[in-house]
Design a protein that fits this description.
Blueprint (H helix, E strand, L loop, with lengths): L1 E4 L13 H9 L6 E5 L8 E7 L2 E5 L5 E7 L14 H8 L31 E2 L8 E5 L14 H7 L1 H12 L4 E10 L9 E11 L2 E10 L4 E11 L8
Antiparallel strand pairs: 1-3, 2-5, 2-8, 3-4, 4-5, 6-7, 7-9, 8-11, 9-10, 10-11
Helix pairs in contact: 1-3
Length: about 240
């Protein structure tokens, strides 16, 4: 057993850990593709337990509350990404990021507009011109603060960069807000270097009741596939009308 603290810097909603980042923490010591499942709100700034049981990495909180778990996955569970946009096309799409006009989670580690360079990732993915509704893209340049001693971006940060674009694929597709990441199956093929411009791509897959699935991918500026993932988002129930 080991202990880990998810610091407030790595929040998604204000009082919970960023889903993609925590999925990456659960997956980072698993060789090859991995599936991470989030079971409860991820507490911030408190010690959490990480244990490995029969190949499954389990994160738990006080009283052994199950927060999430990660395990090896098959490559067949990962989506085949569409052809990536060019760097210029992705940059233009990023300028159409919905969060620039409407406040979603402005302090989110991945997509928050109030996070500065080196504090958050500032992954802004918007509708790609000439692509089907919901296919979003943007440019992400990993900061040196998120690199290891060899200058490569940490794998859990790559997972975090893939988080919110899948959500915004459905925002663009349906114009509806409010969902939480439940499951993420992904693989990191090559970690980007700090300062390396990357293309983020996401697209909606299938909606089944309150579950929305999305594909996400990370490419180099030259179009090399660097990472990809399949996501399951749980649509939040509408709030009851005020009395």
């Amino acid at each position: 057993m080991s202990k880990i603290v998810i610091g407030r810097q790595f929040c998604g909603p204000p009082n919970s850990g960023n889903g993609g980042y925590v999925c990456g923490v659960l997956a980072k010591d698993i060789d090859g593709p991995a599936t991470s499942v989030l079971r409860a709100r991820i507490p911030l700034d408190v010690p959490l337990s990480l244990t490995r049981r029969d190949g499954v990495v389990v994160m738990s909180g006080d009283g052994d509350e199950l927060i999430g778990q990660g395990a090896a996955a098959a490559a067949a569970e990962l989506p085949e990404p569409p052809a990536p946009p060019s760097l210029d096309e992705a940059r233009l799409a990023g300028g159409r990021y919905a969060g620039l006009a409407t406040s979603f989670h402005p302090i989110c580690f991945t997509c928050g507009t109030e996070r500065g360079e080196g504090d958050g990732l500032r992954v802004f993915a918007g509708q790609l011109a000439g692509r089907p509704p919901g296919m979003v893209g943007g440019v992400w340049t990993p900061h040196a603060h998120f690199a290891d001693l060899g200058g490569l971006t940490r794998s859990e940060v790559v997972w975090a960069a893939l988080d919110c674009p899948g959500y915004f694929a459905w925002v663009e597709r349906e114009g509806r807000h409010g969902a939480l990441l439940g499951t993420m199956t992904g693989e990191v093929i090559r970690r980007p270097e700090a300062g390396e411009e990357c293309i983020v791509l996401a697209w909606p897959l299938v909606r089944d009741g309150r579950k929305e699935t999305a594909g996400v991918a990370l490419f180099s500026a030259a179009g090399e596939l660097m990472a990809r993932a399949h996501q399951v988002w749980i649509v939040m129930a509408p709030r009851p009308p005020e009395a």
